[in-house]
Amino acid sequence: MTSRIDALLTSTAALRDHELGCDASDEGAQVLLKAIIAEPPVAPSTGRPRSRRRRAIVAGGLALATVPLLGFSYLHVESEYVDRLPTENALVHGKAGRDEYWLVPSFHKDTCQRPESGVELVSKRRNILGAEWDTAGVGQRRSGCPAGEVTFDRAGEADLLATRLGNRNDPERAWAVIGAFHPDVRTVRVITSGKPRSASTLPRADNPNGPRYIALTLPASTTFASLTYLDERGRQIPGGTRQLILRTPPD
Fold first, then answer.
1. Cis ω before 146 (30° cut-off from 0)
2. Rounded CA gap, 7 and 186, in Å?
3. How many folded domains does the chain comprise?
4. Which of 37, 56, 6 is nearest to 176 (CA)?
5. What is the mean pLDDT of the chain?
C-alpha cells in the first residue's frame, strides 16, 4: 500500500508550514491530517506512545495559526485479524452504496493494554472476516501509561477525520466524516454543494456526560464541507465552525 493522505482537513485560518508525522518503519502507513479549533494557541500535544499495532497517527501533523492539537485522529491497520464485527454497542449504524458501517466505542487496546477512549468507524467492506483490522477513530487521550481520556477545554474544539468508505483510495466511494466534540455540542450542521443537513451528536453509553460523537456520509463527489457546532438550544457554539476540504491525492 502506498502511503497517502486520506483527506486534507483545512480551515479558513492561515496555515503555517507543516510536516506529516507517521511511523516510517511501518509499511503502508496511512497519513491523515487532523485539525482542532481552539483559542488561544498553545503548544501541540507530544502524542501518545505507539502501540505494537501498525498505525499512523498525526499528532502535530497540521499546524494552524491558532490551533492547538489536543486529540488524535488515527487509522488502525494492524496484524490482528477480524473474527467478528463489534456492532452490538454501535452509536451510529448506516449504509452508503455497497458498504455498511458502524460507529462503535473503541475496542482496541493502547500500549497500556487498556481499552482506548473515543470511537472507531468500522466499515464492513474494509473489515472482512479473516482480514486485518482496518478502522478509523477519533477521541482524546493523554500520553503516557496509564493513558486516559481528557475533556475538551473549550466547546469549539473538536477531533475530526474524513475517509472514504470501502476503499479509502477509490474516488467513487462515499466520504465518511467522524468527529469527537465537547459535551455542549448537541448538533453539527453540515453544508456542502448539496442540501444542508444536520447530525445529532451522541455520547458513549459508558460515559453519558463525556465527549459526544458523530458519523455521517457525504457523496463521493463532495470536495468541501462547512461544519457548524450547535448547542442544545440550536445556538452556534463560540468558535464552533470548521471548513473541510476533502481530497484523495493521486498515487
1. yes
2. 25
3. 1
4. 6
5. 71
Domain carrying residue 122: 55-245
218 strand-pairing partners = 175
> Exposed (0-12), middle (13-18) or buried (19+): which is 65, by Cβ within 10 Å?
exposed
Rg from Cα positions in the chain: 17
Answer yes or no: is 236 within a domain. Answer: yes
Task: Find out whether 69 and 36 touch, Cβ atoms under 8 Å.
Answer: yes
Sign of CA dihedral 40, 215, 248, 117: positive
Residue 184 lies in a domain: yes
| pLDDT of residue 129 exceeding 50 | yes
Strand ranges, E, within 89-235:
92-96, 99-105, 119-123, 132-138, 158-164, 175-181, 187-191, 197-200, 202-203, 212-218, 224-230
What's the confidence (pLDDT) of residue 139?
83
pLDDT at position 230: 98
Summarised one tens digit per residue, pLDDT across range 10-41 is: 333 323 222 223 333 333 333 333 333 333 33
- Does residue 24 lie within any of the structural domains? no
More confident residue, 115 or 244: 244
**Is the residue at 26 inside a domain?**
no
For the entire predicted model, the pTM comes to: 0.70
Please, what is the end-to-end C-alpha distance for the chain in angstroms?
10
Of residues 85, 10, 15, 37, the one with CA closest to residue 237: 37
| 98's grid cell | 455497497
What pLDDT sits at residue 171?
Answer: 87
